[in-house]
Specification:
Largest sheet of chain B: 4 strands, mixed
Structural class of chain B: alpha/beta
Mean pLDDT of chain B: 97
CATH topology of chain A: fumarase
CATH superfamily of chain A: Fe-S hydro-lyase, tartrate dehydratase beta-type, catalytic domain
Low-confidence stretches of chain B: none
Order of helices and strands of chain B: EHHHEEHEEHEHEHHEEE
Mean pLDDT of chain A: 97
Number of strands of chain B: 10
CATH class of chain A: Alpha Beta
Shape of chain B: globular
Low-confidence stretches of chain A: none
Oligomer: heterodimer
Largest sheet of chain A: 5 strands, mixed, barrel
Distance between the termini of chain B: 16 Å
Distance between the termini of chain A: 18 Å
Largest interface: A-B, 37 and 41 residues
CATH architecture of chain A: Alpha-Beta Barrel
Number of domains of chain B: 2
Number of domains of chain A: 1
Strand content of chain A: 25-35%
Strand order of the largest sheet of chain A: 2-3-4-5-7
Bound molecules: iron/sulfur cluster
Shape of chain A: globular
Number of helices of chain B: 8
């Protein structure tokens, strides 16, 4: 199946999605990768806060290349999701609606996906030039000092993904 | 006769090569992608390959890096023994080139200074530099920016001689299957057999810079490359790890003499963005 989804992604909608489905997102997503996840985890330990409202939102595992002058962003494809596995179940339990990345996840993450009716999506690894065209705005909202690893708020239009892990426990990589 | 070079020439070349490698793939890699797009059986695999073609086109036309991970700069340098380098420290000149290329070329700075403290160096230096002194009066530079999605899935296996060629095949297939979707397939598999622990790894990395579609000059190794490529493409990992018969574009094996007690095998996996640029100056 193919779905065009205006974000945010609701739990009702998430439950319809099955592995192998194509989804095309329009709306706001947030980026975070290794260093930002570490900081968010530390921040949760310290005072329970995060730099943005995780509830109902999607994190895109991505650290862009710098934008040329006059452009929104540089190359902007997904990074390997498994490096975030250590932090992901906690974020899912706090209401994160989904993640966009590439590659395998641990059983703990897949369990948390099912438990929270969330979805793990893959974007095409190594297609950062193509995917950058779907990003219409980009703003650093936290951890500016991390450079490419800062947390960014993106507005995307027609951003293509594939459902890799769904609310029913399906895993597309497990063929 | 010695030939004199000012090291600033190295800086200039490296800077240009960093930018070139990250926006344009070599013709052989491009051809491998186009050929695979024709051959792929799986519909989703075909779709991904056609998006990768489109990605490559956009990268070159709009000067957006092919992939946002513009890699750690790996440099193979062959210096003719009749070359005399003047004007400064060679390693500093290389790193000045990396800094210039990554800054002026809007490439991502992905290097941290200390592996545990992890502070970004801000200019993608230092490079990983492999130097060989060879006969002649030229310098050959091969720059291969390496992404770490695939680097992280690379392995060194210290096999026993008795494991022989079957052990080598198992090692390659194990590494490719473990990498699965993480290494951004279709991949190029660089394999180093022989030498010692680190020699095997360097052979494997260098094998990635070989022209795709060109087999080893050693007949038994060329046969092994072909056999392994077929085996890898039967794993059904496919483009993006979503299934299909294009898991790898090439398996390139480099070999070296080894010890009577050992059979080191290194498998260095590279994603479809297998970047390498060579210049001879
Ligand atoms: S593995 Fe290669 S294609 Fe994939 S994100 Fe890293 S550099 Fe890009």
């Amino acid at each position: 199946m193919e779905y065009r989804i205006d974000l945010p992604l609701t739990k009702e909608y998430a439950e319809k999605l099955r592995i192998g489905d194509k989804v095309i997102f329009t709306g706001t997503i947030f980026t975070a990768r290794d260093a930002a996840h570490k900081r968010m985890d530390e921040s949760l330990d310290k005072d329970g806060t995060l730099p943005f409202d995780i509830k109902g939102n999607i994190i895109y595992y991505m650290g862009p290349s710098p934008a040329r002058p006059g452009r929104v962003i540089g190359s902007a494809g997904p990074t390997t999701a498994s490096r975030m596995d250590k932090y992901t179940p906690r974020l899912l339990d706090l209401g994160m609606a989904g993640m966009i990345g590439k590659g395998k996840r641990t059983p703990e993450v897949l369990d948390a996906v099912v438990r929270n009716k969330a979805v793990y999506f893959a974007a095409i690894g190594g297609a950062g030039a193509l995917l950058s065209k779907c990003i219409k705005s980009s703003e650093v909202i936290a951890y500016d000092d991390l450079g490419t690893e800062a947390v960014r708020k993106l507005y995307v239009e027609d951003f293509p993904c594939i459902v890799v892990a769904d609310t029913a426990g399906g895993n597309l990589y497990d063929r | 006769m010695t030939r004199e070079f000012d090291v600033s020439l190295i800086t200039e070349n490296i800077a240009e090569m960093c930018i070139e490698a990250n926006h344009f793939l070599s013709e052989d890699m491009k051809e491998a992608l186009y050929a695979a797009a024709e051959r792929e059986d799986s519909p989703v695999g075909r779709e991904i390959l056609s998006q990768l073609k489109e990605n490559l086109k956009i990268a070159g036309e709009d000067m957006i890096p092919i992939c946002q991970d513009t890699g750690m700069a790996v440099l193979f340098m062959e210096i003719g023994q009749d070359v005399h380098l003047t004007g400064g420290d060679l390693e500093e000149a290389v790193n000045a080139g990396v800094k210039k290329g990554y800054t002026e070329g809007y490439l991502r700075k992905s290097v941290v200074s200390d592996p545990l403290i992890r502070e970004n160096t801000g200019d993608n230096t230092p490079a990983v530099i492999h130097v060989r002194i060879v006969p002649g009066d030229k310098i050959k530079l091969t720059l291969a920016p390496k992404g770490f999605g695939s680097e992280n899935m690379s392995r060194v296996f210290m096999l026993k001689p008795a494991q022989g060629v079957e052990g080598v095949k198992d090692a390659v297939l194990t590494a490719v299957k473990d990498a699965g979707p993480n290494a951004c397939p279709p991949v190029v598999v660089g394999v180093g057999i022989g030498g010692d622990f680190e020699k095997a790894a360097i052979l494997a990395k260098q094998a990635l810079t070989r022209e795709a579609g060109k087999n080893s000059e050693l007949p038994h190794i060329a046969a092994l490359e072909k056999e392994l490529l077929d085996m890898v493409n039967e794993t059904d990992i496919g483009p993006g790890g979503l299934g299909g018969n294009t898991t790898a574009f090439a398996v390139n094996i480099n070999t070296y003499a080894t010890h009577i007690a050992g059979l080191p095998v290194a498998v260095n996996i590279c994603c479809h963005v297998n970047r390498h640029v060579t210049r001879i100056i």
